[in-house]
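Below is a complete specimen:
___
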Amino acid sequence: MKSAAAHIFIMSRKSLLTKQIKHIIIEEISNKFREGESHMGQKMVDIYHLIGKENGMRGQMRLAMLTGIMTADAKNLPDTPDKLAQLAAAYKKITKKECPVDIL
């Protein structure tokens, strides 16, 4: 059996490595954002924000019902052409106006 001191030493090394790995991952993500890569779902969130300004929560709920994409999903999913087109079409159906968010 390992001694208590050896166990504590091993656990502290694991904790240190975990912190270092987290720091590396956070730094890598930050670098990608600084390089201009698209944020997850930013355009989808923008569409939800616009529909909320124009039609309130009722409009946002209708957008979610028409598309099957909830607000939380919009924040966590990547902006893909098919999802953006789906949201833009629903936006147009609800507001009777073209979606001002560039979906290309």
Summary: The mean pLDDT is 81.
